[in-house]
């Protein structure tokens, strides 16, 4: 017999979770790409910020998140996004250089 599980998370909390997860996973992917191509730091920062801007804009359109833009940019997963980029960039660079 299958039991229907009730989720205690609200719809907004689930949307924020997927937004956070998208930021973290894209940080890992971007870090791996940076590790292979090793761009100049100014180019890497420009790409990092443009990818984050695309994620925030698309999440407002796709996930219909109605949080303040400052909270989306600076709060949900931003530190993890940047740390994943740095960590995977260093890992891949040191592994294949």
Cα Rg: 16 Å
* Shape by Cα distribution: elongated
Uncertain stretches: none
Measured between the Cα atoms of the first and last residue, the distance is 55 Å
Largest sheet: none
Order of helices and strands: HHHH
Helical content class: over 70%
Task: Give the mean pLDDT.
Answer: 90
Total number of beta strands:
0
Class derived from helix and strand content: mainly alpha
Strand content: under 5%
Discrete helix count: 4
Question: What is the strand and helix layout of this fold?
Answer:
Layout: H1 11-37, H2 41-62, H3 69-74, H4 78-96
Helix pairs in contact: 1-2, 1-4
How would you summarize this macromolecular structure in one to three sentences?
The protein has 97 residues and is an all-alpha fold. The protein is 76% helix and 0% strand. The radius of gyration is 16 Å and the shape is elongated.
Describe the structure.
With 97 residues, the protein is mostly helical. The protein has a domain at 32-96. 76% of the residues lie in helices and 0% in strands. Helix 1 (11-37) runs antiparallel to helix 2 and helix 1 packs parallel to helix 4 (78-96).
What would the keywords be for this entry?
97 residues; 4 helices; 76% helix
């Amino acid at each position: 017999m299958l039991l229907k599980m009730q989720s205690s998370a609200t719809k907004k909390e689930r949307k924020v979770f997927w937004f956070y997860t998208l930021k973290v996973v894209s940080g890992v992917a971007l870090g791996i790409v940076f590790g292979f191509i090793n761009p100049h730091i100014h180019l890497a920062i420009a790409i990092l910020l443009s990818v984050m801007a695309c994620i925030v804009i698309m999440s407002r359109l796709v996930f219909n998140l109605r949080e303040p833009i400052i909270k989306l940019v600076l709060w949900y997963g931003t530190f993890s996004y940047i740390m994943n980029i740095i960590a995977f960039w260093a890992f891949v660079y040191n592994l294949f250089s």
